[in-house]
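Problem statement: downstream parser choked on a complex file, so we are re-checking the raw output for the pyridoxal-5'-phosphate run. The parser issue turned out to be on our end (a line-ending mismatch), but while we're here, posting the original submission so the record is complete.
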Amino acid sequence: MLSVGSKERVALSLHSLRMSAEKFVKGKTIELRKKHIGPSCKIFFSHDPIKIVQAKGQYMYDEKGGSYLDCINNVAHVGHCHPDVVKAGAQQMELLNTNSRFLHDNLVLYAQRLQATLPDKLSVCYFVNSGSEANDLALRLAWQYTGHKDIITLENAYHGHVSSLIDISPYKFHHLSDTEQNQSVHVVQAKHSGVYGQIPVQKILHVRQAGGIFIADEVQVGFGRVGTHFWAFQLQGEDFVPDIVTMGKPIGNGHPMSCVVTTKEVAQSFTSSGMEYFNTFGGNPVSCAIGMAVLDVIEKEDLQGNALRVGRYLTGLLEEQKDKHPLVGDIRLKEQYILLSADGPHRNVLKFKPPMCFTKEDADLLVGKLDHILTELEEALGMKLHGALSVENESNKRKLPTDENGRQNPGGLAHGGGSSLGFAKQAKRISS
Ligand SMILES: Cc1ncc(COP(=O)(O)O)c(C=O)c1O
């Protein structure tokens, strides 16, 4: 007979939990997905998809117990299935969940908590359910306030999947001809403009002088991910205040919720249109309980500080790789149990957006595997490791990348220099 200790018992029960989480064998899941799910809903690693049945912290587990280091899921901001977040959601779900047309303390408490992270002027919240919904509402607020529909957006930006946002997301519409594109949308280039870029503050001031307003899309980069600040727009300077901020992804650690925060003036102008705003799920007591738990964990575990420390450490390690390898290209980390995605107009930028509990050991593991793969690849291609380094690369050794204003990338766990920003352009003044 085999005697099983408590550690083994925990491992065994986790294993059986995983087994019970699988309802079909993988082949059947793939078959049913092909049959019933829209083919444009793409899957990660489509040539050999992974079936994830459980996740914890910065790790994801497949149906066979294979454990992957997660560098993809910035949504699981404070770590997959964080017990405090799960508990907060479950406890509130046992008590009540309903829409925000009833008075409930969670709604106002959470609005107060979010407001405390923002400049005083940004004091009015609209709770919604996804990043796209938040940005669509932000556009409506901006259109109503400015009286104009023109938008300036960044090259390669992505702001969401609904019709109004496809129009302002060059990432999605760049293949369309000029006549197919919305003529009110004006695309500008910015250094580091990718899906996540930043517009220099001087340009924003010009827009404001013309009566336009500024929307900071914090859907990817908010909630401490940039490390030095809680919000990426704060990288523009301590005094800089957007007119509207949109939040999503990390806000609920995987629970679908989002928020638009604006000034009293913008909110008042929206109300003056006379149209009531109602959102069935936005700001329900369960979402608000979860949102508050996420804020608590960020604070309690100093995850913003961790993003800064580990982000800088990882940036340093990657800089060394850049110097060492002429080729940072075809990287297949999935086989090494690392989940990572590519981005950018040519899909040649590695996008690191792990949960914020990512550690220096995880960074070492990630970069060790990256180094190994690149070395093998270069050897196979017969590339010389050092001869191919460009002069420019040499001169950039160990410097952190800088943005348009010459500021250094803060080096948090964000995958870009800051938030993607869009704003309504034309002025009330111009029109009157
Ligand atoms: C910057 C940005 N804004 C908005 C969105 C849309 O968010 P959602 O997918 O939750 O609708 C995304 C999604 O990737 C995003 O990256």
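For whoever reads this later: The pocket of pyridoxal-5'-phosphate is lined by residues 130-132, 135, 158-161, 195, 217, 219-220, 248-249, 420 (CB under 6 Å).
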